[in-house]
Amino acid sequence: MLMQAHAQGLNVSQVTVEGNQNIDAASILKLAGIGRGETTAAQLNDAYQALQNSGLFETVEVLPQGSRLVIRVKEYPLVNVISFEGNKRLKDEALAEIIQSKARRVYSPAKAEADAALIAEGYREQGRLAASVEPKIIRRSDNMVDLVFEIAEGKPTEIERLAFVGNRAFSDRRLRQVLETKQAGLLRTFIRRDTLQPDRLELDKQLLKDFYLSRGYVDVQILDASAEVARERDGVFVTFTLQEGQQFTFGKISAASEIEGLDATEFEAALKLRPGSVYSPSGVETNITRLENLALKKGLTFVSIEPRITRNEKTRELDVVFTLVRGQKIFVERIDIEGNTTTLDQVVRRQFRTVEGDPFNPREIRQSAERIRALGYFADARVNAEPGTSPDQVVVNVDVEEQPTGSLSFGASYGVSSGLGFSIGLTETNFLGRGQTVGFNISTGTDNTNSSITFIEPAFLGRDLKLKFNTFYNETDNQDATYDTRLAGIVPAIEFPVSELGRLELRYFLRYSDLKDLRQAVADDPATPDVDETVLPTSPIIGRDEAREGLFYSGIGATYSYDSRISGVNPNGGVLLRFGVDYAGLGGDVDSITATALALAETKVWNEEVTLRAVFEGGALHMLNDDPSRVTDRYFGGGKIRGFEPGGIGPRDLATDDALGGNFFAVARFEADFPLGLPEEYGISGGLFADFGSVWSLDDVAGQSGAVDDGFHLRSSVGVSIFWTTPIGPLRFNFSKALDKQDYDKEQSFDLTISTKF
């Protein structure tokens, strides 16, 4: 309250402060900015406003009394304690860090209201748009109050619908698979990505744009991502508005040189783009890198590759000329790394193909940044170049933020054949900050126990040379077989690239294999219905295998793999080829050669709604001495041909009904995965499959009491799959029907598998 002074002013001879308890009078006078002497009404009003706006006083009065001026205040109380009520999702400690009000400080209603808004914003980031926060005070003695924030968290405001406007080439269902944000569905209790987060929407817009660009839609625009909140604030409707444009393919692909004396013929021969294929920015980037590497191999420095693209609107083709131009002569002065408290500098530095003193290549620096992020050691990694000490030098700054790289996992698995199993694993992917992987795993099932220790050095001798070491110990106590097994071994290996998409692994192996606890089989005998069980003899072949006791295998092996999917050029599929051979005969008890091969091809069709996949796999075991192969080394085809039990096909002793395994197997599997029309967020899709193959051939069938069938007999099956992605792991239901089979084969018309880590 301000009592009006006379218009001509007031001659103040004394200023008195009343009502203050915690704030001294001198501080109040300083805030008021007024003292003795001639004082105008405007000055009194300014003094009043200054005290009122200080946030320290509940009421302020400026009272002229003759020549004396009285400033009467009522201070805001001090905050005794701050408490939160009604909060469950956000703990008190987290909320205390959000607010600005503090205990033992002056209470401010404006600050309390601002704190309530900050708390509500924290809940909105958790997807709880209906959350409300009300600050209240409880008055205590000595002019103190308790500040209480009463919180009504409300339910998560789920995204009820993700819709798209302007999409013609791809369905809403396909585009939803691209987004990080998901619709609420059956599993909304577990899926936390179905709440609205503005930052995630920005990421989704970029993901959508990248999706279209990688499929040749070079003019795509993501115009808007709007979120409309339901009136009850219990649901959000998100709509992405986009403009696809036309899809373009590669037209003429060529190389040209603007550098005097440099012929582009060899560079053009190195290009790997096919005219007529769908345009992809990653394909252009990959070929630029290929040409830059070729230039370095030829000793050419400061050569840049500029892709010059010409549009042909009529044919919707993009002609690309990879032009070699002379770049600026800029060198890398140094590479500075900060933020790596655990990870050694050398782990980060080896992600650069550039070292101090090399020509500066902005593209290589960007790719190095991607490699650093892909390590998984850092929550964030920023790489940028700044001017160096001279105009022709730059300094590359790497700023990283460490994150935990160790994991302790507990797991469970289930299969109709394998039963219930549990596992525990301890893995560190950045051991001692050296970028090495150390892992220990142990798993148990109904009939088996497996354990292993793994060590991987990804940059042995500072090169792209992966050193691997694995040791394992496995035991089986198989109730469905007449014997148990014990297997142990060590496998050191090195792996290195032999081409852009190909890698080669060379290994040595030392294994011990033991066949033990041979016993007779027990089965129902339909010929004697009064007898519940009958004892069957064990196959003499297995008996001879068991008589050889424990065997040592010592040898070398190699595996070549080619995976076109890692290039990213074709986002709709690719090819995986893998060939392996192992020779056992460097000492030990067994001389043999084992060869395996796998070829996989997959692609998406029908606007990427359906995935088609074909897998061809085979293996051969050849003994180099007079000893026959052993049952523990032969193939059983378990799981490779659906519709049959593990060990349900292949060579069999017809007298004892023992599965013997075969020296050869070949399988062809064809699959189609497709949506079932259910909401994508349910995670349920379907599939069809058809499997063909066989397991055959034995070395020794002598001494049998009955016939042994080890011939090549084609088996085939067809079936339907239901896939369900759940919080406890991916479920797969297979319903199979065996078409081609032998009378003694063991069928399995249904199979359920689940595997998860938590």
Automatic annotation (TrEMBL):
The text of the family note is: Belongs to the BamA family.
Q: What does the subunit section of this Swiss-Prot or TrEMBL entry state?
A: Part of the Bam complex.
Which InterPro entries does UniProt cross-reference here?
Bac_surfAg_D15 (IPR000184), BamA/TamA_POTRA (IPR010827), D15-like (IPR039910), OM_assembly_BamA (IPR023707), POTRA (IPR034746)
Can you tell which superkingdom this protein's organism belongs to? Bacteria
Keyword Signal, does the record have it?
yes
Any transmembrane segments, and where? none
Q: Which HAMAP family match?
A: OM_assembly_BamA (MF_01430)
| Annotated function | Part of the outer membrane protein assembly complex, which is involved in assembly and insertion of beta-barrel proteins into the outer membrane.
Domain named POTRA: residues:
10-76, 330-403
**PROSITE patterns hit by this protein:** POTRA
List the keywords (alphabetical): Cell outer membrane, Membrane, Repeat, Signal, Transmembrane, Transmembrane beta strand
User: What protein does this entry describe?
Assistant: Outer membrane protein assembly factor BamA
Q: Mind giving the lineage of the organism this protein is from?
A: Bacteria, Pseudomonadati, Pseudomonadota, Alphaproteobacteria, Rhodobacterales
Please state the protein's primary subcellular location: membrane
